[in-house]
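Data card: per-record layout.
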Amino acid sequence: MSTYIKRLQVYPNKTLNLITMKKLLIKWFALVPPAPVYNFNVTEGTKCHVIEVDKDTSSIVEGLGITPEREKELVDLSIETYKNTKNLVECIAAVSKHTKHANELFFVSYVLSGFHQQMNNPGAMIAKMIEKTLRGRKGEE
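The structure for this 141-residue chain is written out next.
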């Protein structure tokens, strides 16, 4: 048994007042590990600008000036990276190393946020189960 739990058992029959609760919460929050911090090597004052390349199109890909071949590369890379990372921000940071300019980074972020929302949808669990089943069947063949 940890010493922290032993300290809590010192007064087992007494009710906790607000001050004691506040002290306990402060101690408990100190035990929670901090959230990971992602440090990006960006010098102060550096800015990224998304530039509209084709103003007459309704397609986001053409509007950003990304070719269909590059779009396929970025989408495939994004989805594979998403499957191998822990969270969305880590995934975007990993894929950003393969982008050539701000328009591609914006496109990747856009695609990944949509994919992330789709995967966290309740119906996505069914899709994941079907995908695992199909992968298992391919492995057996």
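Known properties of this structure: Residues 1-32 form one domain. DSSP finds seven helices and no strands in the chain.

See the next section for split statistics.
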